[in-house]
Write a structure and sequence with these properties.
- This protein is an alpha/beta fold.
- 28% of the residues lie in helices and 22% in strands.
- A six-stranded mixed sheet has the order 3-2-1-7-21-20, with helices on one face. It has a five-stranded parallel sheet with strand order 9-18-10-11-14, with helices on one face. Strands 4-5-6 form a three-stranded antiparallel sheet.
- It is globular.
Length: 379
């Protein structure tokens, strides 16, 4: 039996591929529904990649689904996927710690212990919301929430809102606020992002460019940006000197995918771009360029951590950022991490990773018993 941790798209794809290989798999999910990371996000959320490059193995999106599936369409797709493939998903089971136990792995969970020769951890990057420890954060009297808590603009209609972070979520939330008539919307940007227009062929092009040398791929994307988005330097968003693929491979920073309407809102200054946040106080925010503003609310679109440290941090399989050191193959004998590789069109990539993992586990099941590698330290 294989234990899969996480019933998001990567975990479901892994379980389905294992099922095709006739290897029993149990999926442990701490939430009360599959695809919880999608269900619990903001109303406006959509896939950044087109539906035809975002499917999991053996299942397409149903007819009538938008080109860029909306949040609820993705949630429905994942639920149908689990049912269609008759996956053994145990909801409400939180995995607390994974340890080596002889030739198997022992998982301590909220529902008791599980043991398996192979474990696939597929909890994903967007697991634990991260808010920077800004000086004065605790003193801020206004509303301070992470983007994970944002649903819609309804509660902010009369507010002056500062969105912190120019990633996909930050720009999309700022656009949602501006489009909904919120009194004032500002976007705090410390490092200008590489931006790509949300386009049906965009992700396919980006995936193809992954095979080119970084400088050449960066040049192609930079040319595409100038043609589709243009230069936004006068609005506070200059084209970065470092290209998409340089930052992706070195820093694991993905490009910001934007809708044309969001760019128009920035050009019309309905979304005002300001400097990054340096500190907060009771009534306002100090920006990196020395200016001070007094928003009613701050929405931190400042990313997530993997949340893997309590579960596997003692196994020496994570780097200093809490990200698995080995992203393809075994991180330790019988232990794999799935869905942690930054690539354009991640859902489609999850399927590829799941297929590779299932094949490797199937080969291990067919091989005669051989001496295993030294056990991973449990402390």
């Amino acid at each position: 039996m294989v234990i899969v941790v996480g019933a998001g798209p990567a975990g479901l794809a892994a379980a389905a591929e294992l099922g095709r290989a006739r290897i029993p798999a149990v999926v442990l999910e701490q939430a009360d529904v599959v695809g919880a990371s999608w269900r619990d996000r903001y109303d406006r959320l959509r896939l950044n990649s087109a539906r035809w490059v975002s499917t999991l193995p053996g299942s397409r999106f149903p007819r009538g689904t938008g080109v860029f599936p909306a949040r609820d369409e993705v949630v429905g797709y994942l639920g149908d996927y689990a049912e269609r493939h008759t996956l053994d998903v145990r909801l409400g089971v939180r995995v607390e710690r994974i340890d080596r136990a002889g030739d198997t792995w022992r998982l301590e969970t909220s529902a008791g212990e599980f043991e398996a020769a192979h474990v696939i951890v597929a909890g994903g990057y967007a697991h634990r919301p991260y808010v920077p420890a800004w000086p004065g954060r605790a003193d801020f009297a206004g509303t301070l929430v992470h983007a994970a808590e944002y649903r819609s603009a309804a509660r902010f209609r009369e507010d002056d809102v500062l969105v912190v972070g120019p990633g996909c979520s930050g720009v999309e939330i700022a656009h949602d606020l501006a489009e909904s008539g919120v009194r004032r919307v500002r976007l705090a940007v410390r490092t200008p992002p590489n931006m790509l227009l949300r386009d049906p062929l965009g992700v396919q092009l980006a995936r193809a460019l992954m095979h080119l040398p970084e400088r050449r791929a960066d040049a192609i994307v930079r040319f595409a940006r100038r043609r589709t988005i243009g230069d936004l330097a006068e609005f506070g968003l200059p084209i970065p000197e470092e290209g998409v693929f340089t930052r992706l491979r070195r820093d694991h920073v993905t490009p910001t995918i934007v809708d044309r309407e969001a760019i128009e809102a920035i050009r019309a200054r309905r979304i005002e771009v300001v400097s990054g946040v340096s500190a907060l106080d009771a009534n306002g925010v100090q920006l990196a360029d020395g200016t001070r503003i007094e928003p009613d609310a701050v929405i931190a679109a400042t990313g997530y951590g993997t949340g893997l440290e309590p579960v596997v941090g003692h196994l020496d399989v994570l780097d200093e950022r809490g990200v698995p050191r080995v992203l393809a193959g075994e991180a330790a004998p019988g232990l794999r991490f799935l869905g942690y590789i930054h690539r354009p069109g991640p859902l489609g990539r999850f399927g590829e990773e799941a297929r590779e993992a299932a094949r490797a586990i199937a080969r291990a099941h067919r091989q005669p018993a051989t001496p295993r590698h030294p056990a991973v330290a449990a402390t």
